[in-house]
Fold each of these.
Amino acid sequence: MNGSQLPEKPDYEVDFPIERVEAEHVSRREFAKFLCLVSGGMAVGTAWVAVKDTLFPPHRIEGEVFVCKTANVPLGGTHAFTVPGSRTPFILIHLNDGSWRAYEQKCTHLSCAVYYQPQADKIECPCHNGWFDARTGNVLQGPPPRPLPHLEVVLKGDDIYVAEPKTV
Amino acid sequence: MNTTTFRTDQEFFLDPQRCIGCHACEMACAECETNGQIGMIHVDYVDRYFTPQTSVQICMHCLDPVCAKVCPADAITKDEFGIVHSANTARCIACSNCVDACPFGVPKKIEPMDLMMKCNMCYDRTSAGKKPMCATVCPSGALYYGTREEMRERRPNSEPVNQFTFGKQIVKTKVNIMMPKGSTVLVVDDE
């Protein structure tokens, strides 16, 4: 092929060169562009999270919210519920010693649903083998970075209510 | 950059006149697992009715490979040593553009695999400093892989040529063809 007769390299030859050396070559400019794009994207993403958190703070429960009757949850059992005005799933746990706990059911790692394991008396996230203490919500092992957010459980006779924890 | 022990001082010299049609090169080529045990070298009968003369054809590894240029899937590439590699199996769509485009008739579409396969000058061997399979078995010297000096000693009356003309088109190749002393170009088709 007499390449000199062609006016210039067509775009597809520039984008898909047949020379391996050219195809694998990353120029300083390309690398700088990529670096700017990625770090710029991360900066924008972080800013967006910060703005969103300021403008739309997480939903707080007002007063006490009725969940269920104590008879509905056996010892070692759980009850899933939501509170009005929010779609965040919560679980009410009846621990083996008879005490009650309520946690957000979203793992603090990547928001998978967490489950109470009565035999181990721990809360498990099956996605990445994360474990939480069923009594405190603290992380025992695995990738979750923070303890599970919890709610205050208030017993009134046979009725179970939840409220925002007092010390926040 | 890949680290290989490719010998850049060694070249391929093709002398089709010396081909005796023993097919040893085909057998040697097909022994290679990297080809799927399919021979990538072609032994052609020039005009079987009149003569027993055969001719041998390997990939000439054009400096401006038209097979790679016509590939719509970017499956054929040329490396820094000038080796035009066989189709990337993940990319080849078996369109046969390269089969039709090659001036030497080298690429073949292998139907059972739906894939183009061609000679890559035994890159698995040459990149490790070894000679291509066909060149190691050829008994008559039709296929020779070595340095230019070695070739000059063996064939003082021949000249390695790597330029072909097909009408107005000039094709330069990495592989040399042995021509009578003083030749500079092989005119295939003079329009």
Amino acid sequence: MWKTILRRVLIMIPEIVILSVLIFVLAKLMPGDPFSGMITPQTSPSQIHALKVEAGLYDSWYVQYWHWIVRLFHGDFGMSYQFHSPVVNLIASRAVNTLWLSLLTVILSYALAIPLGLIAGRYEDSKRDKAIQIYNYVSYAIPAFVVYLLGLWFFGYILGWFPTSGSVSLGASGFFGVALSRLYHMILPAVLMALISTTGVVQYLRSEIIDAKRQDYVKTARAKGVPESKVFSRHIFRNSLLPIAAFAGYSITGLLAGSIFVETVFAYPGMGLLFVNSIINRDYSVITVLVLLFGILNLVGTLLSDIILSIVDPRIRIE
Amino acid sequence: MSLLKMKSRKEKKFENVEATSSWKVMAREFAQDKVALGSLILLLILFLVIFVGSLFLNTSKVMTVSIMDQYNAPGTNGFILGADQGGRDVLKELILGARNSLIIGASVTVLMEVIGIIFGLVAGYYGGLVDNLMMRFLDFMLTLPTLMIIIVIVTIVPKYNMWIFILVMAAFYWVGTARLIRSKALSEAKKDYISASKTSGSSDLWIMFRELLPNLSSIIIVDSILSLAGNIGIEVGLTFLGFGLPDDVPSLGTLIGYATDPDTLTGRPWVWVPASLLILVICVGISYVGNVLRRSADARQRLG
């Protein structure tokens, strides 16, 4: 067990190094330098030159890379050009919003996907199963941002049920007031995002259950005279549901990529919207850190899934 | 599936044993699934209208701004679907945009299939250490924040145009195809006909591309069609955000992108709703047809 986890963590280290090199190269290709956020009209060109020499911008690339990494480990991520504040503080304040939205989306999406998958698997080939399958095809093929736009237009503007932008309304006060307002702002984006992100779990659960139905232990249970509903709830569902836990880590990748669209459409101030705004304003220090952060979060998500999977399914462990 | 049903299916299959050509299987599958047949016909009509219609349209003429016609409502001044913020005809922009989105989606799909097939075949055919190393690389590619990296590259490339966009997209989206081809090639490479060919002295390249590849053709066709739907969606999405096609090339995403202005979103739905519905129909239709083809490629899943 521990060997598997250790091996998996060791594999991750070179991946992070390659990722950081890749992002360093991208960052070097971007115009601008770490001082873009500090330069004012009063700064003279010779001062800028001196700053650049001091920062080692004329060193060879591997020296620069090394300095960059060391700075990152010291928590120095540079200054934001558009907000004139340290990148760390900026991202930290936005990350909270993305985190809450993602969490609500994951909960809703599992709450929807698990029953659908169970029904589709249990009543295979029935009308219900076919309806679920069609829902699956459609929700998988639909471009997400179109759903968000149509949803925002219909529920936000025409019906006026939900707020159309932001994360907390200005009038909200007190702990519960703010929390409720936050939840209210998140419901529409989270529901829409959850609706179209169920495909993986539903399909996986459905095929797991269909496979399990033909297993010997299920036949034994039936032969013993266990009632049909108990066969499903006690024998089949338990075995089929466990691997679903591993999907949680993989879904981080999808949620982060999805946050770019959902936050843009709903003007929800999370990391996705910050990324889009930084690109538009050419705020390269923020962009670099965001790409690095998303990359590392993706790696951690996959790591998490692999570990959960190895706990749940002993067959894939390495001894 | 109940036992009784399985029996009746088997009987059905034995009724016309001689009908085994893949075209007939496909036709039978479409005849069984009326929704798929409907979406196939709808798609064909749409493609015909889009491609024939765009022959009569001149991109630079359509994209010329005429501020007098700004936000003309549908049906006025000869604008069937109204006009956008630059006074451009939404219907004409829709046809040109759909054509561009389809062409870009198709080009990306062809490119990524070629890369994915070569990568997957080499990994699957050689197996062992080669496969191990190549799979490590794939795993790494899979964890990259692809969308963000594409957006970053799009913004820092100096001479940006449609072809660079296609190359950048293909450079990141071939990974799924490579994994699929690799897993199929891995099991196919263990079969007797490959060993026989090796023994008789065929070169590795010959075996990979003339003997292994034809046996994967049905999988490749299905994967291409399903990826096509995905790629069109991604292109339109990126253009919607403003990081896709250059401004002078209309795409469905350009039209939908106007909806980021709340006034357009609520007050002028004719600008963005037709494009949104069109992209929905195209993506869902293509992927539905692709799923029917997948069923007909896999004997266990067929309906008829």
